Amino acid sequence: MPENGFSAETFFGDGGGLTYSDFILLPGHISFSANEVDLETNLTKNLRIKRPIVSSPMDTVTESKMAIYLALLGGIGIIHYNNSIEEQAKEVKLVKRFENGFITDPVTLSPENTISDVDKIKKTYGFSGIPITEDGTLKTRLIGIVTRRDIDFEVDRTKKLREVMVTGLVTADAGISLAEGNKILKESKKGKLPLVDKEGRLATLMSRTDLLKNEDFPFASKNKEKQLLVGAAISTRDEDKDRLKELVDAGADVIVIDASQGDSIYQHNMIKYIKSNYPDIEVVGGNVVTAKQCKSLIDKGVDALRIGMGSGSICITQNAMAVGRAQGSAVYHCAKVAREYAGIPVIADGGIANIGYIVKALSLGSSTVMLGAMLAGTSEAPGDYYYEGGTRLKKYRGMASLEAMEKGGDKRYYADEDKIKIAQGVSGTVVDKGSVSHFGEYIIKSLLHAMQNLGYKTIKELHNGLYDGTLSFEARSPTAQGEGAIHDLHSYTSPDTALFYPPDRKKGVIF
C-alpha cells in the first residue's frame, strides 16, 4: 500500500461499483515541465495516435468535420452509421482526402443573397470570406467573392451581395498542389484562392489563414500516406457487411463494432467475418464492462475494446434495463484483464463529464477516452445552433433515444425489428463550446498539466504506476466533492465551469 492513499488493486478490490466522482488521485513528484509530457498512446493493438481523444460515433457528434479536426489535434473521430452506406462512406472519404489548407466543401452564396446572410454565416461558422456562384451552389459558375473588408463598414445589411462582391478574381485550376497554391496566394496577396474546374465551377478553396495552420498541428494523426486517420462504426447486422466493404474501400483505418452489449453471438460472427475478409483493418469490439466479456471478444480477435454500459449523460440503460456497471470499476477491471490477457488497449466510453474525468479514466488503465457530450456542442459537431432562453445550443441525443432510433440508431440495441421501441437514451441539448480546434487544445493542455501533477511523463508510465501500486487513490465523500469544486463565493468568473464542474443531478445547479 502506498504511504498515503490506496493502490488501485486495494481501492477497487472489494467489488463495489465506483465511478469517477468517487475518488481522487494523489499527487506525485514533479521533475519535468508540462511540455515534456508525451500523450502518445495506442488506440488499438497496432495503431497509435498522439493524443488519447476519440469522438463517439453518434449522429450529433461525429461526421467528417469533427473527424478532421480531431485528427489534426492528434486524436481520431469515429463516423456514425445513422445514415445510408453512401453517406457514411462519403464522410470517411472527406477525411481521407483532406489536406490542410484546402477547403473541400466551401459555403457559397448567390448574388441575390444579402450582407445579413454573410453575418449569419460568420456567427455560425466563424468566417466571412464567401465565394459567390450564379445560383449559390457549387453546381454553377463562380462569379465573385465577398470578404470581411467588403462589408465591414456597410450600414445597410439588406444590401444584395452583387453590389459589394469582388468580381476581378485570382483563381487557379483545381488539382494544383498545396505548395503551388501557397505561392499564388503569396504573390497575389489575397486571403482566399478559389480553385475552379474547366467549366469555371468552384471545386475547392484555399485560405491564407488555413495555410498558416499547417504549422499549428504537429501532432496530427496520419497514416504512412500522410492521410488523416479516421474510424467508422458499423452494427452487428448482416446487412452491414455491405457497409463494411464500402467503408474499407473509402479508406477507414479502424472499424468500431457499435453495440450496447457487445458480448453477443452477433458480434462474434461480425468480428470473425471482418478478420477473415479484411485482415489489415483494425477492429474495436464492445461495449463491454466485465472481465468475462473482455476475454470473449479478445478470443475472437479484436484489436481494442470499448468499455462502458449505461454511463453516458444521455443513456438510461442502467435504469431502464437494470444492467450495466459503474464506469470507474468497469474501466479498471476491463483494462486490467485486457492488459494481462493479451496486451489489448481499451477505450473508456461514457461518463466523461469534465476534463478531470479524462485524467481519471486514463489513470484506471484506459489508453484512450471516447467523448460524446463534451464534443457535441462544438461547431464541428453535426447540427445547427439555435437559441433557447438566450443561450446558444445544439441538439445532443443518445443513439438509443426514440428520436435517433427512428433514424436507424436501434441497430446498436438489437431492436430495429421491434414494433415497440424501448428507449435506452434521451434527447437533449448542450451549450455552444466554439470550435473543437480551440476547445480540443484546451483539453490537451489540461491533460499535460494533470500528468505533470501526477508525476508521470507518459501514459505508459501512468499505467505502470497503476499496476505496480505507486499511483495512489483516495475516496471522496460528497462533502469532499463539494470542497473540490467552486464554493463559498457570492459570484465568480470561470473560463467554462461546465468543463470542470458537472451539474448536480439532484439540484440541477452548478456546485
Automatic annotation (TrEMBL):
Regulation: Mycophenolic acid (MPA) is a non-competitive inhibitor that prevents formation of the closed enzyme conformation by binding to the same site as the amobile flap. In contrast, mizoribine monophosphate (MZP) is a competitive inhibitor that induces the closed conformation. MPA is a potent inhibitor of mammalian IMPDHs but a poor inhibitor of the bacterial enzymes. MZP is a more potent inhibitor of bacterial IMPDH.
GO cellular component term, pick one: cytoplasm
Coiled-coil regions, chain positions: none
Active-site residues, record numbering mapped to chain: C315 (thioimidate intermediate), R412 (proton acceptor)
SUPFAM superfamilies: CBS-domain pair, Inosine monophosphate dehydrogenase (IMPDH)
Binding-site residues for NAD(+), renumbered to this chain: D258, A259, S260, G308, M309, G310
E.C. code: 1.1.1.205
Binding of K(+), residues: G310, G312, C315
A Pfam family assignment: IMPDH
Record-linked PROSITE patterns: CBS, IMP_DH_GMP_RED
GO MF annotation terms: IMP dehydrogenase activity; metal ion binding; nucleotide binding
Domain CBS: from-to ranges: 102-161, 165-221
UniProt xrefs under SMART domains: CBS, IMPDH
Xref: CDD domains: CBS_pair_IMPDH, IMPDH
Pathway this chain belongs to: Purine metabolism; XMP biosynthesis via de novo pathway; XMP from IMP: step 1/1
Catalytic activity: IMP + NAD(+) + H2O = XMP + NADH + H(+)
Gene Ontology biological process: GMP biosynthetic process; GTP biosynthetic process
Cofactor: K(+)
Domain of life according to the entry: Bacteria
Top EC class for this record: oxidoreductase
Quaternary structure note: Homotetramer.
Family to which the UniProt record says this protein belongs: Belongs to the IMPDH/GMPR family.
HAMAP family listed in its UniProt record: IMPDH
Name of protein: Inosine-5'-monophosphate dehydrogenase
Organism of provenance: Candidatus Scalindua rubra
